[in-house]
Specification:
- The chain has 192 residues and is of the alpha/beta class.
- It folds into two domains: 91 residues, Rossmann fold, CATH 3.40.50; 73 residues, Rossmann fold (3-Layer(aba) Sandwich), CATH 3.40.50.
- The chain is 32% helix and 17% strand.
- The strands form two sheets. The protein has a five-stranded mixed beta sheet with strand order 1-2-3-7-8, with no helix packed on it. It has a three-stranded antiparallel beta sheet with strand order 4-5-6.
- The two termini are 32 Å apart.
Length: 192
């Protein structure tokens, strides 16, 4: 497995992709690309530069993978066909059609009415955090911060706008991520 990093000022990714190719030597000749998948842990604005480098170097058949920073309509503004089949994950998805819970849809609608824009994952996580803390304070008035922490850790499958939330033994939040895929030039939630 090869990896390559770049600075936030990088605009031309050709040398970075070349470096990945040289780090992927020893693959069989039948492979259409020197690697099967390419994970790009960056925001949507940077993805077209990587795709341009792949095209320039005639690298075909690579599955593109990403994170929450890809979940933006601007991802498809350039060349959506180059992203066909790309997969990424996100902790919060703006509901459309049948996807999303009532809480999720209500939060998005209320937020958009108040601020004129869709909420991001940051607003959704902040909303869920405040909702959890306020629930603990209502259930246990007069508790101190140590007790609040303990009561939060005991919450299991708390219904948030980002999904059901639980905490593991180390205090890390556990929630289900949504898997998204580019299908026919559109961002679709997988499994819904």
């Amino acid at each position: 497995m090869a990896s390559e990093s770049y600075s936030e000022n990088t605009r031309n990714f050709t040398d970075k992709v070349r470096s990945l190719i040289s780090g992927s030597e020893g693959l069989s000749a039948e492979v259409r690309a020197p690697f099967q998948a390419l994970f790009i842990p960056d925001v949507y604005r940077r993805v077209p530069g990587v795709i341009d480098a792949l095209n320039l170097l005639n690298i075909k058949g690579v599955k593109l993978l990403g994170g929450a920073g890809w979940d933006h309509p601007g991802l498809l503004s350039g060349n959506p066909s180059a992203l066909e089949g790309a997969i990424f994950v996100d902790g919060f998805v703006i509901p459309n059609g049948q996807n999303g819970t009532f809480e999720n849809k209500d939060f998005v609608s209320t937020f958009k009415n108040a601020y004129g824009v869709d909420p991001t994952i940051l607003e959704a996580y902040a909303f869920d955090t405040l909702k959890m803390v306020s629930t603990v304070l209502r259930e246990h008035p007069g508790v101190d911060r140590t007790q609040i922490k303990q009561f939060l850790l005991e919450k299991k499958n708390f219904p948030g706008v980002t999904g059901n939330i639980s905490f593991d033994d180390t205090g890390d939040a556990r929630r289900r991520l949504s898997v998204l895929k580019i299908v026919d030039g559109e961002i679709k939630v997988v499994g819904e």
